[in-house]
Amino acid sequence: MGRKLFFFILLAAWMWMCTGCSNKEKHYVIGVSQCSDDIWREKQNAELRMGNYFHNNVELRFAAADDSDKRQIEQIDSLVACGIDLLIVAPNQVATISPAIDRAYDSGIPVIVFERKTNSRKYTAFMSADNYAMGRQMGEYIAKRLNGSGRVLEVAGLKGSSPAIERHKGFEDVLKQYPGVTVIATLQGDWTEDTGYDIVKKWKEENPDVTVDLVFGMNDRSAIGARRAFLEAGDSRPLYCGIDGLPGENGGIRLVNDSVLDASFIYPTNGDLVLQLAVDILEGRPYKKETLMTSAMVTHDNARVLLMQTEETMRQEENLDRLHEMANAYLKKLDTQRALTWTAFGGFVLLIAVMVLFYLYKLGKSTLRRERMVNSLWELKSEELPAPESAGADNAPTSESASGQSGAVSSVFFTRFKDVVEARLEDSELSVEDLASEMNLSRVQLYRKVKAVTGASPVEILRTARLKRGYQLLLTTDLSISEVAYKVGFTAPGYFTKCFKEEYGILPGDVRTGNC
After folding, report:
1. Is 427 buried (19+), middle (13-18) or exposed (0-12) by CB count in 10 A?
2. Domain limits at 502?
3. Per-residue pLDDT tens digits for 295-337
4. 51 with 146, same domain?
């Protein structure tokens, strides 16, 4: 009777713990790759976080490239390597960022391209306003504002970015209908106020006698920078138009209301809608592949009403933030109480577990088993490398656990896959589609076959194989860390070092110095 009661208590405790675990929602990690860090994107990021209040099972990871193609490519690759479930990306330029986005998409990660376009169709969904239509409507407004006759200076956005290309095209096309309106120059900007100021100041110094009636900045900050340059030169004649129409103290709506700008154009951020789209994709709900957001002109006629509306919205957002902070404080207290309860219960369960183990040991009926997941095709995860002679034996990877896995990877298919991967480790452009093609499978078929057996994706297997080869080269050659990185197919030594540390718990240099 005592023995039955003992096992009944143990079973009840186990069922109670499992019930608590089974009710947890699936957790998603969403990477957000912003091409720059400015007030427009700050507002969008704030909206993403606001939308996250309603999705407690979502973790957002932000990265800003500061208008650098190279940095954004590295950040996208890093987000993918860290194991995100979905990527939201605003590409810096049309062509240069596409390969990194394609790599993410090819690895099986859904991709939302937002606000700016790429030259690839490898994305899950696209959301943006109509930049060509904005350019046309601004051109119509400017032509009518100048009564069909005047001289316009254009300050363009970042070269190669889709908004700059499309806004210029729309503006240019509509002005063909107004021969009296002349664009005397188009200056190459980069969306920032300082660059707008610098290029216009230089142009003014080179053309001191040229009259300008209106400056069209492709965003509000470019227009404000141009305005500073003209005012410093003592020229107060031009009107200034921009695009963005943000709310807030220094936003375009207030600037139009205060007659600093003559007009702006609301370019919606809609971070909350982007997040909802991401969650719909992740949870398998219907969604639109292409979404055009609504935008509108801001002029003196409507600026005051829009300002009142946006300020009220901002106040409500601040109230929501405060409520969220209060709720967080309450939940932290609740979590503390819950943690204490679980600690006490955990001690009780631990005591029972020790008693059970001792009981089973005494009876000689121990049936403990350890399950090992197949994390590689040919023992990439389980087969660890021997430590260098100068390194400590306890910290270096070993190969002692490899023998138990050989049976799970003996098929002809996986032997072939191993050969294909090892033959092309040095190819930094190698993609999942390339591997699938050599295996005479589709990308989806290859992904499913590898994932079903190993628990890892083909991209993870390829990365682990490269790291293993890199470890061997560090042990057996005098190649530098950079040379090893490129030798095994990494495009950047820094990224190789990061992945190596995550895989083996040591830095590449430690393999040779004995610090592992």
Report:
1. exposed
2. 403-513
3. 999 999 999 999 887 777 766 666 666 665 676 676 677 777 7
4. no
Q: Rounded to whole angstroms, what are the CA distances from 99 to 93, 274, 431, 493?
A: 12, 22, 11, 19
Centroid of chain to Cα 330 = 31
Nearby residues of 361 by Cβ (< 8 Å), 6 or more positions away: none
Residue 506 belongs to a domain:
yes
Of 236, 253, 269, the position where a domain reaches its end is: 269
pLDDT at 397: 46
Q: What angle do CA 239, 240, 241 make, to 5 degrees?
A: 130
Q: How many separate domains does the chain show?
A: 3
Please spell the DSSP secondary structure of 406-434, one letter per residue: GGGG-SHHHHHHHHHHHHTTT-TT--HHH
Q: How far apart are CA 170 and CA 265, in angstroms?
A: 14
Q: Pull the structure tokens for residue 412.
A: 């002809």
Q: Tell me: the pLDDT tens digits for 371-425? A: 333 334 444 433 433 344 433 334 444 444 434 444 444 467 777 878 888 888 8
Provide the terminal-to-terminal Cα distance of the chain, rounded to the nearest Å.
Answer: 54
Using alpha carbons, select from 475, 513, 318, 316 the residue that is nearest to residue 384.
475
Are both 496 and 415 inside the same structural domain? yes
CA distance 39 to 219: 12
Same domain, 103 and 143: no
pLDDT tens per residue across span 185-214: 999 999 999 999 999 999 999 999 999 999
CA–CA gap between residue 466 and residue 20 (Å, rounded): 40
